Amino acid sequence: MRALLQRVAEAQVRVDGEVVGSIDEGLLVFLGVFPSDTEADADWLADKTLALRIFPDQEHNMNRSVIDVNGGVLVVSQFTLAADTRRGNRPGFSNAAPPAQAEELYEHYVGRLREAHSIVATGTFGADMKVHLVNDGPVTILLEHPRA
After folding, report:
1. In this model, does residue 145 exceed pLDDT 90?
2. Which of 16, 26, 76, 109 supports an S-S bond with 71, CB 3.0-4.6 Å?
3. What does the pLDDT look like over 31-80, one tens digit per residue?
4. Is 78 a catalytic residue?
């Protein structure tokens, strides 16, 4: 399981021109799922997402988590994070989990976030989404389960 986190001043996701999820300050999370991923992996990644200290404190050091700043978390499914680009110029996606498994683990990850934090929004799994964001910093962090 792989999550690309971006610290944002604001972010929103549109599907067919309608906003389906939005946050103000917080984290935009692009989530990719692999066939070997489990609910335990999703739990670990969700806990790490919420605990990661990438927001500035009063001295401008990254010492605060998204929970500490009462920020939002916007989660967007992103199968292209499983892209295999080792050969040729067109990425392969056979490393991505099948849609049913990916959606189940995506929903589990979101559920785990919602158990611990009140400001969680999502895109629409599998939809053609337009993501609008104002990256803050910029700060972009790639999180992977240690066994990945």
Report:
1. no
2. 26
3. 999 999 999 999 999 999 999 999 999 999 999 999 999 999 999 999 99
4. yes
Q: Give the per-residue pLDDT at 117.
A: 97
Distances from the Cα of 70 to the Cα of 25, 29, 35, 65, 100, angstroms:
8, 16, 33, 9, 32
Tokens representing residue 37 in the block: 């991923």
The answer to whether the CB of 2 falls within 8 A of the CB of 81 is yes
Catalytic residue among 80, 101, 124, 125: 80
Q: Domain containing 18: what range?
A: 2-144
- List, for residues 17-28, the tens digit of each pLDDT value: 999 999 999 999
Active site annotation includes 125: no
CATH (domain of 132)? 3.50.80.10
Half-sphere exposure in the Cβ direction for 85 (13 Å, CA): 5
Catalytic residue among 6, 12, 78, 122: 78
Sorted by sequence, the CB contacts under 8 Å of residue 17 that are 6+ apart come out as none
Q: Which two tokens stand for residue 26?
A: 């917080």
Which among 79, 93, 101, 140 is annotated as catalytic? 79
38 is catalytic: no
pTM of the model: 0.95
